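Translate sequence into structure tokens.
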Amino acid sequence: MTLTQLWQSILQDATAQDEEALLHMLTGLREKQLGVHNRYINANLRMTGDFYPTHSVVSIPNSLIIQNSIQVAHGGILATIADAAMGGLASRAAPTGKNVVTTTLTMNYIATSTAQQLIARGTFIHKGNRTFVMACTIEDNEGKKLATATATFFVIEKRTL
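Result follows.
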């Protein structure tokens, strides 16, 4: 099946929810093409982030794309934005020629939310030569705390592709 045939088939059978999901994903893909996002996962989640020397703020819309069967954000998505907030901050703090990889990630889920935005805020607990230990809180845009996370990142040689 060609892309055109698949697209026509999808649109022919699309529900209103399918159309909402397609609009979300295609907008993200278009934003990647325009340079708004540098990774497909960021584009698909419509993730935005601000990174400062001591903390980070990463957010995503609470769209049906990320929701589970009870229409709240899937726990794995919360782990993903926590990892992005902490890992993005850690990678920016790595010495020249180095990067980081996640070695542990612990999530503590507190509540669910139907609010419009999910916001992860990352900070440092420890910044060593070989490891960074990070913390993160995840809230919705109404200030409701949804989860906390901690993670350890191992400092590695930067890889070139």
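Note: Residues 1-44 form one domain.
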